[in-house]
């Protein structure tokens, strides 16, 4: 299974981290590719959790943006050329993911013209990619 990830720059809440860890424990054996946007906050947290839980079993693909919030992560198998954030958000979905996991900051999205996490969720839905939202508590 190819999993893409999107999350808030503020980082995951403790609850979201627990839920993501459970997801990795339950479905980790199925994950062959894990892709994210290399942004501060939730992307970096998820990257570390995937590295710890799956080691080298998953191919790690990174789609960085040109924004100042970009982080250079260690251990990526593939790093795309940086693109503007909204273009990069679409690449995270277009990379062929079977599931998008999202850890948004707020319960309601701001739609296609809002924040990157919700824009990525909306783009995945538009392309009929299943989305697993791990709500913040």
Tell me, what is the CATH class? Alpha Beta
Spatial gap, N to C terminus: 27 Å
State the helical fraction: 25-40%
In the sheet with the most strands, the strands line up as 4-3-2-1-5-6
Main β-sheet: number of strands, strand sense, barrel status? 6 strands, parallel
CATH architecture identity: 3-Layer(aba) Sandwich
How many extended strands? 6
Looking at CATH, which topology would you report?
A: Rossmann fold
Which ranges are low-confidence, i.e. pLDDT below 50, for 5 or more consecutive residues? none
Q: Number of folding domains? A: 1
Number of DSSP helical runs: 4
Structural class from helices and strands? alpha/beta
Spell out the blueprint of helices and strands.
Blueprint: E1 2-7, H1 14-27, E2 33-36, H2 42-54, E3 59-62, E4 78-79, H3 85-94, E5 99-103, H4 116-126, E6 131-133
Parallel strand pairs: 1-2, 1-5, 2-3, 3-4, 5-6
Helix pairs in contact: 1-2, 3-4
Structure commentary:
This protein has 137 residues and is α/β, with parallel strands linked by helices. It has helices spanning 14-27, 42-54, 85-94, 116-126; strands at 2-7, 33-36, 59-62, 78-79, 99-103, 131-133. The chain has one domain (2-133): Rossmann fold (3-Layer(aba) Sandwich), CATH 3.40.50. The protein is built from 4 helices and 6 strands; from the N terminus they run E-H-E-H-E-E-H-E-H-E. The chain has a 6-stranded parallel sheet, sandwiched between helices. Helix 1 (14-27) runs parallel beside helix 2 (42-54). The relative contact order is 0.22.
